[in-house]
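hey m, so remember when u said the C-alpha cells were messed up on ur end? i reran from scratch. heres the input so u can diff it against urs
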Amino acid sequence: MNTPFLKTIAAGATLLLAAGCSTMGGQGPAADEAPPPANPAFATEMAKFNAQFPNPKASKYEDVSINFNNTNKLDERGNCHDKSRYPVVIVLTLDANGRVTRSTTDVENSKAACFREAYASAQLPPPPFAPYLKPIKLR
C-alpha cells in the first residue's frame, strides 16, 4: 500500500479523535480559543500606575499587597482562572483604606469580567497614598 496514503488516513483519524475529545467533558477553555479583544482604557490605567514610581513607599506596598493577595487567595474567588486560557491583567484602584473602588482589565472577555467582579469587594491593606493603582497579572 502507498505510504503517503496511510499517513493521510492516520492524520485524518488523529484530527477526528482530537475533535471528539475537545467537545467532551467541558474542562477548561478550548485549545483553539481566539485571543480576547484588548481594552483601550487599560493603557491609561497602566500609565497612572507607572507614574506612581519611583517611590519607595509604593515599591514597599507592591510587596505587601502581592503577599496579601497570595495569602488570602483573592484571585480564586469566582473560579475565574478556568474561563479562558489567556492571562488577564487587572488594575485595581484603591482608596485610602485599601478598598477597591474601580478595576480595569487589559482585555474584554468572560474571564476579565469574572475577575473584575471577584475583586469588586476586595479589601487590601491600606496603600501609602490614595488613589493607588495596583496591577495584578492573573494566569
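this time it looks ok to me. Residues 3-22 form the longest helix (20 residues). if urs says something different then somethings off w ur setup not the seq
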